[in-house]
Amino acid sequence: MSRRVRMWILAVGGLGFAALFAAACLRLPGFGGDSHPYGERAVRAALAHRTANVIAAVNFDQRAFDTLGEESILFAAVLGTVVLLRQTREEREVPPEPARVPLLVRRYALVLLPVAIVVGLYVVAHGQLSPGGGFQGGVVLATALHLLYIGADYHALERVRPVGVYEFGDAAGEGAYLVLGLAGFVAGSSFLANSVIGHGTFNTLASGGTVPLLNMAVGMEVACAVVVLLARFLDQAVEIEEEKGT
Amino acid sequence: MMSVVPYLVAGWIFLAGCYGLATSRHLVHAVGCLAVCQSSTYVLLLAVGYRDGGTAPVFSDLRPGSRPLVDPVVQALALTDVVVGATVTALLLALVMQVAKRHGTVDPDELSELRG
Amino acid sequence: MTDALVLISLFAVAATATAAVVVRDPARQALVLSVLGLALAVLFTVLQAPDVALSQLAVGSALTPLLILLSVRKVRRRGRREEGER
């Protein structure tokens, strides 16, 4: 397909989309409107299960099965990346030269590292109370670990980051979510139903029934997944080189 | 005017991302454009869920029923997709690296010429 | 007041999104994308979605640009000749 034909198709498709989308927008309920039937029901359901953060209740209680699907997409995407970026036969590892890091940067990163990890853990643990949860906290945890790469060097990062352990953690997080779902059957109700343990006292750390547990499973999976992803990408970008003459 | 502008902005972001995808000369750039397209859906979803004078549906420092709330359902949809979308972006970037390895180019036009 | 904030952050998002598409060099695009992530996080906060803002902040302004920069580095290291002039 030539460039010109492609631009024509793009123009026709773009204009068609713009016209239809604008027409649809005019008939949508206006921005900031007062009618949110699903939202109101979700809030009521969350309060009934004593979960203070309604978004966590929607994700891990009312739509927990959907989140299992999302999580599986994440798992599959990470698996695919790991398979695609494995070291092939015609590549070899070249250990990177340790670089001089300015002292200020090094101190800043090393002070920030524990703070960032604690923040990540806090965000995962308080997902059922305040904004946060497994998805966000997991990413914070994983990126926090990479402050070590900024503060020290790649070698130091590799020592605290045995990729195999994190790959295991990724799978264990996914598995824990499934097991918590199956526990619903044992408790005599349906898959992923929030009835396995009591709902606790509203607005305390132990409220929301299985929501905090599912949050932790997701937090573990996301943190490990992001660490594995970044490890593969860093390996490719920093270490792995093609052998000359192949 | 205010009642449709956020939706139209979402549409604009989507179209801009599509334009970038179609005219991209570098596969990594194309993946970045796809991330732009993706962000338009978050803008649309959250715009649909907004309520004038509403507050976030989090009761850790709010008495239930004391203030109008924005829609938590669309927020939950956007929230999971932000993180899952990033891993899918990573998968696409891994594919780009493989393409670069196998074909020695990351220009979509050159790649289609290779196929013949 | 809130309307003004929403409008300002909406246009910031639209502008950075357009810039992210127009900037053709992927390494520069990664930087614009991280600004876009930041603008989106601000917009989501204004729209009363702190959960989404938090994940957008972590993912959009740190993770995705980092992944893109690493891929660019890998692709460049393969010694493409015409990369430099793009």
Automatic annotation (TrEMBL), chain A:
Pfam family, one: MnhB
Source species, domain of life: Bacteria
Keyword Transmembrane helix: yes
One of the record's GO cellular component terms: plasma membrane
Alphabetized UniProt keyword annotations: Cell membrane, Membrane, Transmembrane, Transmembrane helix
Record membrane topology: Multi-pass membrane protein
Key word Plastid present: no
Residue stretches making up the Na+/H+ antiporter MnhB subunit-related protein domain: 105-227
Transmembrane residue ranges: 72-88, 108-129, 135-154, 175-193, 213-234
Main location: membrane
Cellular localization per UniProt: Cell membrane
Annotated family: Belongs to the CPA3 antiporters (TC 2.A.63) subunit B family.
Alphabetical list of PANTHER family matching this protein: NA(+)/H(+) ANTIPORTER SUBUNIT B, NA(+)_H(+) ANTIPORTER SUBUNIT B
Protein name: Sodium:proton antiporter
Organism for this UniProt entry: Streptomyces mangrovisoli
From TrEMBL, chain B:
Broad class of the protein's primary localization: membrane
Listed GO CC annotations: plasma membrane
Residues spanning the membrane: 73-96
Stored InterPro entries: CPA3_antiporter_subunitC (IPR050601), NUOK/Mnh_C1-like (IPR039428)
Family per similarity comment: Belongs to the CPA3 antiporters (TC 2.A.63) subunit C family.
Entry keyword set: Cell membrane, Membrane, Transmembrane, Transmembrane helix
Gene3D superfamilies assigned: 1.10.287.3510
Membrane topology: Multi-pass membrane protein
Annotated Pfam families: Oxidored_q2
Protein name: Dehydrogenase
Superkingdom of the organism of origin: Bacteria
Localisation per UniProt entry: Cell membrane
TrEMBL record, chain C:
Presence of keyword Protease: no
Transmembrane spans: 6-23, 30-47, 53-72
Signal peptide: none
Pfam families linked: MbhD
Membrane topology: Multi-pass membrane protein
Gene3D superfamilies hit by this protein: NADH-ubiquinone/plastoquinone oxidoreductase chain 6, subunit NuoJ
Taxonomy, superkingdom: Bacteria
Start and end residues of each MrpA C-terminal/MbhD domain: 13-77
A single Gene Ontology CC term: plasma membrane
InterPro entries per UniProt: MrpA_C/MbhD, Nuo/plastoQ_OxRdtase_6_NuoJ
Record keywords: Cell membrane, Membrane, Transmembrane, Transmembrane helix
Localization annotation: Cell membrane
Name of the protein: MrpA C-terminal/MbhD domain-containing protein
Organism: Streptomyces mangrovisoli
Lineage, highest ranks first: Bacteria, Bacillati, Actinomycetota, Actinomycetes, Kitasatosporales
